Fold:
Amino acid sequence: MTQADAAAIVPRQRLLVTDPPYYDNVGYVDLSDFFYVWLRRSIGDVYPKLLGTVLTPKADELVADPFRHQDVDVFFEDGFRNVFRRTRQETPQGYPITVFYAFKQAETDGDGGHASTGWETLLEGILASGWAVTATWPMRTERSGRTRDIASNALASSIVLACRPRPADAGVTDRRGLIVALREEFPGALRRLEEGKVAPVDLRQAAIGPGWRCSPGMRG
Structure:
């Protein structure tokens, strides 16, 4: 059992499966204090290094928390990209990494439209770190009707992103080229998702990966 900063781990050949921080949605380090104090009392002598502090360390938690950082956007985005850049160096050739993201039912922006700051930041950070999203699969990880779900904008499902290093010789396209590629290749990819029994409510997120694979800018 190891506790370490993901941005400071020594690079080596490894595969990554991660459920990253959700921008400002959940302060896990504060939540974990509820359990930490009991673990420290019960097994602190078994894991003295892991449970050596009075409460959980909070200063370096990768979350957009305005109470801890003045410029939360820069802190979160720079830290996120740094982790995924290092991961790209560590991942063995030919293997993907998988990233889980719990997707909310809806998030509303200031103009009355729907947006998700955490979702957008996650995707932008992965792309800016040299990765290409090659598949996105929805997973029903949240039970409907649970107490947290009643009369609230609770998490609806989890999206699993399969990512591979973006080829160094990948081309660049403009909006017109992207639309042409999508019209040629995306209908077939969408049919395969439908044949795989992906629920209609989940198609929007499931189609992100195949849509990116159609882009000339993501192919070598």
